[in-house]
Q: What sequence folds into this?
């Protein structure tokens, strides 16, 4: 009897492709939604980042419910056990949404992407304490380089905004916690990646809508004067749709990779966003110190990404797979031997 190594190799290659494609999907989605959100909140001066987040949640619920009804996707029906299974993801989800949109509005694109680098360090720390993971020193050193570059860039921010910096650091912490707990919850029976997405949005959308109405945020959004502009409506709808796409891509990337890998992919995306933001958007105040910090930060991100994506996973080595080949023979006495 022979156990073929080819099947093992094929599985390893298949999972490797899924990891890569899911990571690229997340990178593209994250890049596009950052640009769209920046257009809605800054270029059009839309006053309500909370209302925009509500729109993204509603689209997520509608799309996934329609997919469930049409049996395109499957996840458990709603019951009381859902709350216990998914907690605390809904709280982290809405906090991540709101602080992310608020910081996008308050900060220039380059500074937004620089300060988002602290998410990598926070994710690494949470994976150590929550998921009990360990990391090689070279990865830790690359993270230190990223954080150092972020500090250098932020130290020369001529458009320093206390509220914006507070929102972005809160967003970093919530993103890290959301990524780690999403990875933890994806294995929960009955939920899966679609159930996590659906119930996250469903549970939190009504409380968020009430909070928006109570604070006057909803009134500002409804009375916004550019609702008659077709260009604004198109951008708003694109942001809502991309909100769903982004959340799906995050869950998909976390499903096939780790929370830390998902964060690394975000750092790769930020390289393009930061440098494009220098020339696009009109709210970046150039300084050499800031530009140097950006470059250090991005260089560390590239090294970190390279080290992370070039780690060999168990079973991916062809020689290791060949060791699975076992011959079982029967001798003249009737006994079985393996060689």
A:
């Amino acid at each position: 009897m022979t156990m073929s190594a080819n099947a093992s190799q094929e599985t390893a290659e298949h999972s490797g492709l899924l990891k890569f494609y899911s990571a690229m999907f997340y990178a593209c989605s994250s890049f596009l939604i950052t640009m769209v959100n920046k257009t809605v909140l800054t270029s059009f001066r839309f006053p309500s980042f909370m209302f925009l987040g509500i729109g993204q949640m509603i689209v997520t619920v509608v799309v996934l419910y329609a997919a469930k009804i049409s049996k395109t996707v499957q996840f458990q029906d709603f019951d009381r056990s859902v709350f216990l299974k998914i907690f605390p993801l809904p709280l982290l989800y809405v906090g991540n949404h709101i602080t992310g949109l608020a910081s996008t509005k308050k900060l220039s694109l380059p500074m937004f992407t620089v300060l988002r680098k602290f998410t990598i360090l926070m994710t690494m720390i949470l994976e150590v304490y929550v998921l009990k993971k360990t990391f090689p020193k070279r990865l830790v050193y690359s993270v230190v380089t990223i954080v150092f570059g972020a500090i250098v860039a932020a130290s020369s921010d001529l458009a320093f905004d206390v509220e914006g910096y507070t929102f972005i650091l809160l967003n970093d912490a919530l993103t890290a916690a959301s990524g780690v707990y999403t990875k933890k919850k994806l294995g929960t029976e009955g939920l899966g990646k679609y159930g996590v997405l659906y119930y996250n949005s469903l549970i939190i959308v009504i409380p968020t809508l009430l909070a928006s109405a109570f604070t006057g945020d909803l009134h500002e959004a409804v009375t916004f004067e550019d609702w008659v502009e077709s260009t604004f409506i198109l951008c708003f709808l694109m942001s809502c749709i991309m909100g769903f796409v982004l959340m799906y891509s995050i869950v998909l990337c976390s499903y096939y990779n780790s929370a830390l890998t998902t964060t690394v992919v975000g750092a790769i995306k930020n390289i393009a966003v930061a440098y494009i933001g220098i020339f696009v958007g009109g709210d970046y105040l150039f300084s050499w110190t800031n530009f140097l910090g950006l470059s250090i930060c991005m260089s560390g991100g590239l090294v970190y990404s390279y080290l992370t994506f070039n780690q060999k996973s168990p079973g991916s080595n062809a020689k290791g797979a060949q060791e699975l080949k076992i011959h079982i023979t029967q001798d003249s006495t009737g006994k079985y031997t393996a060689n």
User: Anything to note?
Assistant: DSSP finds 14 helices and two strands in the chain.
